[in-house]
Amino acid sequence: MDAIRIPPPAELDALDDEHFRQVVRAFLHTHYPEELRNPPKRLHWSENKPWYFKLAEQGWLCPGWPKEFGGLGLSPSKIIILTEEYERYGVARCNDHGIVMLGPLVIKYGTPAQQQQFLPKILTGEHIWCQGYSEPNAGSDLAALRTEAVLDGDHYVVNGQKIWTTLAMDANWIFLLVRTDKTAKKQEGISFLLVDMNTPGITVRPIINLEYHDEFCETFFDNVRVPKENLVGQLNKGWDMAKALLSFERIFLGSPRQSGYALSRLKLLAERMGVYEDAVFQESYVRLRLEFEDLKALYETYVAKLKRGESLGPDVSMLKVIQTELFQKITDCMLEIAGENAGLLEPMEGNRNLNATGQFIQARPASIYGGSNEIQRNIISKNVLGMPG
Amino acid sequence: MSAQLAADDRAESIRMIRDSAAAVAPPGGDTKRIRALRQTLPGFDAAVWRQMGEFGWIGLRAPEALGGAGLGLAELGALAEELGGALAPEPLVAAGISTALLAAAGAKAELASLLAGETLVLTAWQERADTLAAPGTPDASRMFIPFAAGASAFLLPVREGAELALYWQPAGAGLSTEYTYDGGHFGTLQPAPARKLADDIGAVLEQALDDAALATSFYLLGGAERAFAMTLDYLKTRMQFGKVIGTFQALQHRAADLKMQLALFRASVEDAAAVVDAGASGAARQAAISRAKVRAAEGAMLITRQCVQLSGGIGYTDQYDVGLYLRKAMVLANQYGSAGLHRRRFMATAPEGEE
Ligand SMILES: Cc1cc2nc3c(=O)[nH]c(=O)nc-3n(C[C@H](O)[C@H](O)[C@H](O)COP(=O)(O)OP(=O)(O)OC[C@H]3O[C@@H](n4cnc5c(N)ncnc54)[C@H](O)[C@@H]3O)c2cc1C
């Protein structure tokens, strides 16, 4: 392990894949905090920041960003290898909205000034982002959002409410979709605004989820003044950017990350329960494995498109549906074989690798967030297949 | 009495039980009581338990000669269904195993205080996950005992040669507990048998565990029905895209699918209760109960999962009641045998279909 040299970040993309895998293993072995392996729940910033800062310090934070913006510029196959090794090791998910969503958006649509202002601060961990899209009455129908921003001199004044804002309590910046023209058609009066959460008038109220965890929040805006240069792209053109950003989110949610992790833990659970060799279990397990391998192959084709600079079409919705439903099937199987342990609140025998119930619960909202799977199927049938209506 | 009259009487007694259940499980009642008891020990309300004793529920199936009501599984099932709809956390199903054993052992005093709800006697039979077998290994710790922290005493099956003897173990020492996802708990008990109650209760225990599996199936049915009703209301009121979401055909079809699952679920468990009440024994009894428990485990999980999905973000909150039913299903689906175990047992016990 320790014999492997970890090359500087800029050289990683040039390694051959197998060598790269060894490097990732050595990297985790050297740098990953042991106590953060296999966290039973999504970690808060106070818990995962040592790892965020470690990634930042080593230059490994943003594998998919181009090198000129401080990313690793990795190939699709290397991104998959990285994901596989992270999941194998039980690496915690960071507060990654800046890395996965806001960063790529600013790279694509931001002004050079915005790129200079925001990207370096994601890379250092100074700015932790959260996503303020959904509202109580604008979930699947996101374009119905009502939080409004009204220009007053050099500032927008924001009023309204967001909900289900993941890890808003940890974030110091939020990217918002706001209504800037109430007279236009609903998709045409929306803008994209970056807001410092320390601005007066913002209240964040945590909501306890099914996992008994304060992972998402309600976020209220009461006359919040935002400098007008924090608008990204053109006024009233936020919807198009949000759609593009949603495709980044969908490829992230479609990555084999969750199902890969769950599948490897399903195997451990089956071994512990003494059913791994059982023919009935093997039958379900092999089905899940085959689907997983095919998902990986499909995912790779999407990452390759991005890498070539092509934009993703509505068909990326397929990836999101397939991955999240596979994740759910795997965790359903965990409960089926766990016997009475399927009811435990904490990981079985205190072993975080045997966290069937935690994994099962975490798999539930995967088909709700990032555009519910019903909405994805609507997109596939209308925008990919051209069904009427 | 004609068969028709008997059937009418039966239906009437089931209706009365459902009505009386409203005292503990009011239709449309809120979940405040249930929420307040979560992650507390013993996790149920001793006053409600006594009340269940007064209503005669704890002894619903116990022979009349021993102070019970001598009713059947259909009656117990109807009651369990109502309690499941209200998520009542009192240990009626688990205590049913003990009432059967105490009755068989002729332990009148112990049975009387249990039937009155003055005590809680639980049977500590399980030595590993997902089994219906009670090997009675003398020194093996007994696992997955629901409500264990509330027990006044445990019944301990202990293998003695070819027989499975029954011992009494007062509560107090040797118990550890672990919370479950619904806010209840499981206990693990170190055996310390104090007093022998009976020489051989193997066959009674086997049957009592099956009855518990079927009663649990009814409890799950009640929960699935209630979660579905709430979700249906939500589909009829939640607006998106300027419409009630129940107008979207994808969701209409989903609701229709769930309704069909519920219909099969009810048919399966009620049929199993009828088979048992008609006096089936041996393989036929086991096959009917296994069929019901497979349906219950899978149906309850499917329906409550889908109810969360159809509710969107709010479905994933602790504050919204639909999630309580999913969590309860997670805990009960595999109790008294998982779907996998009961599928295997069905194949081993069911008579072959006619060729
Ligand atoms: C764990 C979690 C984290 C989240 N994090 C964030 C976040 O960080 N930031 C953020 O902005 N949002 C976040 N969300 C919100 C998420 O995007 C919304 O929950 C989602 O868009 C669904 O909206 P809704 O909850 O209002 O459900 P609704 O839109 O009310 O949907 C209810 C049900 O109706 C279905 N439905 C709705 N319309 C149709 C249709 N036309 N056809 C068929 N079915 C339909 C839905 O699929 C769903 O099953 C998060 C949600 C969850 C659960």
Task: Report on this structure.
The complex is a heterodimer of chains A (389) and B (355). With 389 residues, chain A is an alpha+beta fold. Chain A has three domains: 9-94, Acyl-CoA dehydrogenase/oxidase, N-terminal domain (Butyryl-Coa Dehydrogenase, subunit A, domain 1); 129-238, Butyryl-CoA Dehydrogenase, subunit A, domain 2; 248-383, Butyryl-CoA Dehydrogenase, subunit A, domain 3 (Up-down Bundle), CATH 1.20.140.10. Chain A is built from eleven helices and eight strands. In chain A, the strands form two sheets. In chain A, strands 1-4-5-8 form a four-stranded mixed sheet. Chain A has a four-stranded antiparallel sheet with strand order 2-3-7-6, with no helix packed on it. In chain A, β6 (202-207) and β7 form a beta hairpin. In chain A, α3 packs parallel to α7 (257-273) and α6 runs parallel beside α9 (316-337). The longest helix of chain A is centred in the C-terminal third of the chain and has 29 residues, at 279-307. Chain A is globular. Chain A starts with 16 loop residues before the first helix and ends in a 5-residue tail after the last helix. Chain B is α+β, with helices and mostly antiparallel strands and 355 residues long. Chain B has two domains: 2-203, Orthogonal Bundle (Butyryl-Coa Dehydrogenase, subunit A, domain 1); 206-349, Butyryl-CoA Dehydrogenase, subunit A, domain 3. Chain B is 53% helix and 12% strand. Chain B has helices at residues 3-21, 32-37, 46-54, 73-86, 92-105, 108-115, 202-237, 249-277, 282-311, 322-332, 339-349; strands at 121-123, 142-146, 153-160, 163-170, 175-179, 185-189, 195-198, 239-240, 243-244. Chain B has a four-stranded mixed sheet with strand order 1-3-4-7, with helices on one face. The longest helix of chain B has 36 residues, at 202-237. Chain B is globular and about 70 Å long. The interface between A and B is large, with 42 and 45 residues. Flavin-adenine dinucleotide sits between chains A (131-134, 139-140, 164-166, 216, 365, 368-369, 371-372, 374-375, 378) and B (238, 240-241, 245, 248, 250-251, 309-310, 312-313, 316).
